[in-house]
Amino acid sequence: MTTRSLTLFEAHVTPLIGGFGRTSTVMELLRTRGVATVEGLDTRAKVLAFAQQMMTLVPHPDSDPDALTTIRDRGAASRRPGLAGLGTGELLAHTERSSLPRPPRLMLLVCQQPAASGGDVLLTDGRALHALLLERAPRALEMMALPDTAFYGDGGGHLSQIFTRHRGERVSIRLRQDALAAFSPLLTPHLQHLRTAIEALQQRVTLDAGQGYLIDNSRWLHARTGFCGDRVCLRALGDPRTPIPPGFPSQIHWSAP
Predict the structure, then answer these.
(1) 120 and 225 in contact (C-beta within 8 Å)?
(2) What is the pLDDT of residues 22-77, one digit of tens each?
């Protein structure tokens, strides 16, 4: 008898009671795996209630007064640098708000209306990515951890690196791959290793109405395929109400500052 493997969504789904999640279950998933999935959030009010339960919301420049951002096709506006998420095209793997000195730790994305076609989510675990690069391209991984080799944002952006080492032998990831990302010439020759590894590890998630995912923004990369139709999602950014350590445990031992 063949046993079917669970999808990423099925393996991390958290039951909701009256529109609220089991906080301890969600936080345990975030601490250990950096991701939790949810369903039943089929209204804006339910999305907002769940987001407020899990995090202290951080507004985004494009968010609405309740701090949720409505993600849908906004036409010509999406062609401005940094706003591709408000169009219908694909989005390359990235973390949220990489241009800030301290990006929000959590991101919640919930589908309210699926696209007519396309619009699948692509998630990549930074821990698995770090391990694969260590195995296949250790020199590239070393360069990706060099301080000040990546600049994210416009003139007021943030100078950083792709992988950051923290106390306790933990690592976090910070990445964007659009026109608002610039990389050091030392790092540029190694970026193809990163892209190849991301493509090898991406897990596809097709969200129905009311389904979503909550990720540790210092561990997971998220991307999106292009789509047709009126796809509508709600996004919340914020910091966890219960502190969680940054990123993921490293397979490399070092003396962090």
Answers:
(1) yes
(2) 788 899 999 999 999 999 999 999 999 999 999 999 999 889 999 999 999 887 77
- Whether 257 maps to a domain, the answer reads no
**1 domain-assigned:** no
Is residue 249 within a helix (H) or strand (E), and if so which, with residue range? strand 248-249
Q: What is the pLDDT of residues 122-133, one digit of tens each?
A: 999 999 999 999
State the CATH number of the domain containing residue 199.
Answer: 3.60.130.10
Residue 91 placed within a domain: yes
Q: Which two structure tokens, joined as six digits, stand for 249?
A: 């445990």
Q: Are 50 and 41 in contact (CB under 8 A)?
A: yes
Paired with 96 in beta bridges are: none
Return d(Cα 144, Cα 116) in angstroms, integer.
38
Q: 21-29: long-range contacts (C-beta < 8 A, 24 or more apart)?
A: 21/50, 21/53, 21/54, 23/53, 23/54, 23/242, 26/54, 26/214, 27/54, 27/240, 27/242, 27/244
